[in-house]
Amino acid sequence: MVYEQSKTDLRRSSVHPAVRTVGERRRQKSNRLLFLSFLGRECSLWLSLGGFHERGSDWEATGRIYNAHLLLDPQGTLVAAYRKTHLFDVELEGRVSLKESAFTNPGPEIVPPVDTPAGKVGLGVCYDLRFPEMSLALAQEGAELLTYPSAFTVTTGAAHWEVLLRARAIETQCYVVAAAQTGRHHERRASYGHAMVVDPWGSVVAQCQDGMGLCYAEIDLAYLRHLREEMPVFSHRRPDLYGRVGAPRTPLPQ
């Protein structure tokens, strides 16, 4: 199985760059998807592809898109499409300023894990990584491998990228595979890179650096199942105690 983080051109403009170039990128992504589908068929590969822009239902009025993660089987058939549910609206003074909701709609649902030769694959995108409720929901639905094609900033990536990936792997006892965008968009934004694979114990078993690269890892489902038998954390969970942990009644203190 091959995991790819699609590149996105975020050029400055008086109109938000993701909206200004979406028509051009949509054509490019369509051609790219056709090519990748052909390549997957030729090589008999499953492909996990992140960062494809899909027009939202209110496109004509707002110009908003969905940020979609696509899964293709070895015949090049689209078997699952997940639309990013958590949008990156963050203001870190002097470091990061992004408002994804200005040009993106939140996806309506979590997509059930998909059966593949590498195990049952759960689909996420980038900022979804920060929400353990989502990864736990996928694991409870049977996921054995979680995927997060991402474009972390250098600031957030250096501080949190590996920690979050390892945390999601440990708490779900899943493999976590995270393709990662790398490179500089303009003088104010660069992507962190460091694509990696983490095993269900939380060990990093493959990793790229901050430049373009490719890494490989074996997905050992026998090891995953053995680990879950030795440490059956899901059977130890106490949902009767957790209440509305995914939906706090009042905002957290600022």
Question: Could you describe the 3D structure shown?
Answer:
- The protein has 254 residues and is α+β, with helices and mostly antiparallel strands.
- 30% of the residues lie in helices and 26% in strands.
- It contains 8 helices and 14 strands.
- It is globular, with a radius of gyration of 18 Å.
- It comes from Phrynocephalus forsythii.
- Belongs to the carbon-nitrogen hydrolase superfamily. NIT1/NIT2 family.
- It holds the Pfam family CN_hydrolase.
Q: Detail the poorly predicted runs.
A: 7-22
Mean pLDDT across the residues is 87
Quaternary structure: single chain
The proportion of residues in beta strands is: 25-35%
- Topology as H/E string? EHHEHEEEEEEHEHEEEEEHHH
| Annotation, overall tally of beta strands | 14
Question: What structural class results from the helix and strand content?
Answer: alpha+beta
Gross geometry: globular
User: Please, how many helices?
Assistant: 8
Q: How is the largest sheet built, in terms of strand order?
A: 7-8-9-10-13-14
Question: Could you tell me how far the N terminus lies from the C terminus, measured between alpha carbons in angstroms?
Answer: 42 Å
Please give the share of residues in helix: 25-40%
* Largest pleated sheet: 6 strands, mixed
Domain CN hydrolase: 1-221
GO molecular function: hydrolase activity, acting on carbon-nitrogen (but not peptide) bonds, in linear amides
Keywords: Hydrolase
Protein name: CN hydrolase domain-containing protein
